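@channel sequence for tomorrow's demo:
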Amino acid sequence: MLTEILDYHRFIGGDSICILRQAFFLSCVSASISGDTGVIHVLESEEDLEWPLSKGPNPPYMVLLESSLFTRSIMMKMKNESNRVAGVAVVVPNTSPPEFSPHTTCPNENTGVYSDNYGPNLAHCNTTVWNPRGNGLSYEEFDFPVFSLKEDNETEFIKQCYLDHNRAVNGSAPQYPLCAMQLFSHMHAVTNTPTCMRRNDINFSINPEMVCDPLGDYNVWGSIRPYNDTVFGHKENESVVIAAARLDSRAFFWEVSTGAEGSVSGFVTLLAAAQALREVTHEAPPTRNILFAFFQGETFDYIGSSRMVYDMENGKFVIDLDNIHSVLEIGQVALHSGNNLFLHSDPVSRRNNTVNDVKNLVNNLQSSTAGLGFLLVEPNVSQPLPPSSLQRFLRAQPIPGIVLADHESAFNNRYYESFYDNAANLNLTYPSDLSPEEQLEFVTHTAESLTDVATVVARALYKQAGGDESRVNTIKADPKIVTQMLYGFLVSSNNSWFQAVMAPELKNILKPSPPEYYVGVAMSSTPTRLVQYLLANLTGAATNLTQSQCQKPDELPNESRQMYSYLWVQGIVPPNSTERDSFCVRASVRLTKAVSPAFELGEYASKDYSTWTESRWKFIKARIFLVASRDLEMLTLGVGVAVLFTSLLVTYFISTKADVLFSSTREPASAAY
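structure tokens (generated this afternoon):
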């Protein structure tokens, strides 16, 4: 009695990838090649673990648990008794618990700037534990698959199957048939990154099969004054202020990594600041250039920022480290309590006279809050930088820099790097009577707050770049643009504004849900493309070029692909029309690789660069069905074997006696007349 319920690929998270690092498995949950099968047990409390782990008479068990029971304590108990656990399915609800973070308490502690040689008293979160709620589940290896299920009809069907067939009554074992589940999620990778990458290089067939891939994507960057994209290295008499934010996030279940506070709040703020600077930087250009950088893969040991720094050090980027005047990074900024945001800097480099420009950057930021409802303050105690891309720049050389964040010490984010860091975490709510199009235009309190932060960032960047002081107070971010970005990045990317700014061939990446912010291995992910096109539309200029001219601008006298990128976008649908008003955008926005230098250098066991890889797999799915008792199975097998031998004996007997059994009486020969 076999009942397929659905293909779970769209629900599956933590076990659908096996992520490896240099010395061991990390966040690896894999099924056997033929799938893992177990009798379903719905966990109702931690005490109920006794049934699948010791008392239950029908192991192994497939444990279904609510997210409130998805804790380190319960998961580690099941890990230690993995011979009785075939797999785990976690029901992800529509509401959030008080707190949950499967990340570590000290994110990226081994690849930042602090070490035994640089600020040893600040290394490994000795003075400040940034993520005290972190339970480290994302960094555990489990010998059984862990799936996520949405709280919907299919999940209720599984629970009902358990209640009908598997639930113990008064402690007695349930009667057969029992409801079972089979999970398929076999991962091809083995052991660690060096082993995995070495096996990739061993090719014994015409069509070799790769077993893992480096994590990576593209960084997005743009500048207020364009750079020749073919001329790399140091620029004489060029000074650049870098404004940075990270693009990626992660969760235990990779397809629900929304990163609302962890990443979206920061890069939305920076995009809004870039738009606020467009007009003033054209009318009164500052003496220094401003480069906006959006880094991918920062969750996994700073993949994007370490690659940009590596390229700068090796003459593979349009500027080098000596061209950098200062860095302003936008971190988590949406959950500030009270009226303060915090300016974090590196106490070690600030002791060096060469980076006293940090104080100038602090002053420029603090003086930009005039007329706004909050203050920017420095932490009261000497502490390290929070996890940030700036740390990778400081590893290369001392550079003045500030990380803007909503927390003084520990993160305000109760759901750091978890599937609960979503729109609800930012209190992004809309009146129930609004249509999707009206929600897109509705300016929420969160949007208003981030608009003020973006205004401060834009003003401070203009001052830091040597802009005209008399124009500073005219710089204001647009709350409508901020609210549209928040809606598109956290509610539904398939909305009219995102449709208008994207290329026609990319319209299929827009979904009626938020994008996934896990960096993955598929280059040019949805967040990367969205930020690329948004940055181009917000900072670039609409042209009169036709679509064919937009694709080949070098054939025109005043256009150059070396200086600009040219993007053909869909445009809006004008009133009383069914055709989009498409046009060509010219902008100094580029993509550069965000793949760890370790893979370019072939140093798969590097301790200086990220060495994260992701396992390959063929398919991921689940099914449930009823299983008979072992006695009935053995009886069925025995009867089948008996029938087989009986049929063989009968066949043998018939074969040996065929001349007797099948002979016919011959007719006498015809007489001759």
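heads up for whoever presents: Confidence is low (pLDDT under 50) at residues 1-16, 23-27.
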